[in-house]
Every structure is written in structure tokens, then in C-alpha cells.
Design goal:
The protein has 203 residues and is mostly beta strands. The protein is built from one helix and 17 strands.
């Protein structure tokens, strides 16, 4: 499957507006960037799926995203915006050049005749963005807010008496990512229990 998407930057990022603080001559703050371009993405994915009995299925998928104009925050130590000269950091937004995200997704669900099922999936991704501060220099950085690994596990019940399905669901979601900053390795781990109580669903 191939499709394209476009997302315009938010008003806060593009508004020609300054927020600044003058602390004894040290001027810091933030500035919008009205020259930001919209975020454009070309998406491609392919998957292979197998469906068995009793809610059982297995799938594997590959995807790629080619992105133009991804939006990143940027901090200048000194800069002038809208006639105000900042000399103690100013945060603004800018577009990256080209970005890519490649990924693999695996899904497994197994169900029993009594209505109990187990489901799990894992997604592995690798993404980066390229910046060109000048015509003859460029660098790449990991894609913003993208975890290298994400996994989801759930156990539930989906076999009701007719009009209602009672779904006591336990769902655990885990995101694991690594961010290298200077010499510090930061591990992100987030676990959420979506529900431990029965859910009544009207069919």
C-alpha cells in the first residue's frame, strides 16, 4: 500500500510572536517561525497475514516513511528575531531536510473456544533526519520522539451471551527507547495497565 500525508505546523510554532525575558541584560525566550513548511510524508507498507480459527491470526509487516520538512525545536545561543536580539538562548522551530523511518511489525493473537484470547505485537523502527545548516555541511540525528522498540501484550475474553460482550481485559504496553546525549544513556520505559475491570460492550 502506498499513500501520502501532509500536516501543517501548529499555530504556536508558526505565529510571528516573541516571548522573552530580560534579566539584567541577559535576554532569553522563544520565537515562532512563520517560514515553517508543512510536514509531508510518503508511506509504503506491505504485510502478510494468516487467519485461523477462534480469533487466531498471525501477521508480519514492513513499512517505510519518506518524510520532508519534519519539524524540530532548535535553540540558538545568540540570534535576532523580529528586531529583538537574544544573547542567552532563544528557542524556535525549523524544518529538517529529509527524514526516513523503516520498520518491522509482528502481530500474534491466539484464541480458545471458551472465548479467552492472548494477543501481542512488537514494532521495531529505525529513523533519522538530515539537517544542512550551510550549503557545504550536513548532519543526521535520530528521528524525534521515535522509540526503537514498542510492544503490546493483552489477555481478554470475547464471547458474550448475545446482546452483550463482557470483556475483562488486561493490557500492558511497553515502549523501550534509547537516547544518547553526550555520554549519558537514557532508557525510556513506560508501562500502562489499560484496564483491570470488566468492560461491557454493546454489539
Amino acid at each position: 500500500m502506498l499513500w501520502k500525508g501532509l500536516s501543517r505546523p501548529g499555530f504556536k510554532k508558526t505565529a510571528p510572536k516573541l516571548d522573552y525575558k530580560n534579566d539584567g541584560g541577559d535576554i532569553s525566550g522563544s520565537a515562532g517561525n512563520p517560514n515553517l513548511k508543512p510536514y509531508e510524508a510518503t508511506n509504503f507498507d506491505v504485510s502478510l497475514e494468516f487467519y485461523g480459527d477462534d480469533m487466531t491470526f498471525v501477521s508480519v509487516g514492513l513499512f517505510r516513511k519518506d518524510i520532508k520538512n519534519a519539524i524540530y525545536p532548535k535553540i540558538y545561543k545568540t540570534a535576532t528575531f523580529m528586531g529583538v536580539t537574544f544573547n542567552d538562548d532563544v528557542e524556535t522551530w525549523e524544518n529538517a531536510d529529509d527524514s526516513t523511518i523503516d520498520g518491522l511489525e509482528l502481530n500474534l493473537q491466539y484464541g480458545w473456544e471458551n472465548g479467552i484470547y492472548f494477543a501481542g505485537n512488537i514494532t521495531l523502527t529505525d529513523g533519522e533526519s538530515t539537517f544542512s545548516p550551510t550549503d557545504d555541511t550536513s548532519f543526521t540525528t535520530p528521528f524525534r520522539k521515535l522509540a526503537d522498540e514498542a510492544a503490546n501484550i493483552s489477555i481478554g475474553y470475547d464471547k458474550g451471551p448475545g446482546m452483550f460482550d463482557w470483556l475483562p481485559i488486561i493490557e500492558v504496553t511497553i515502549w523501550i527507547g534509547c537516547l544518547m546525549k553526550a555520554t549519558t544513556l537514557i532508557m525510556f520505559l513506560s508501562i500502562t495497565l489499560d484496564s483491570l475491570m470488566p468492560i461491557c460492550k454493546l454489539i
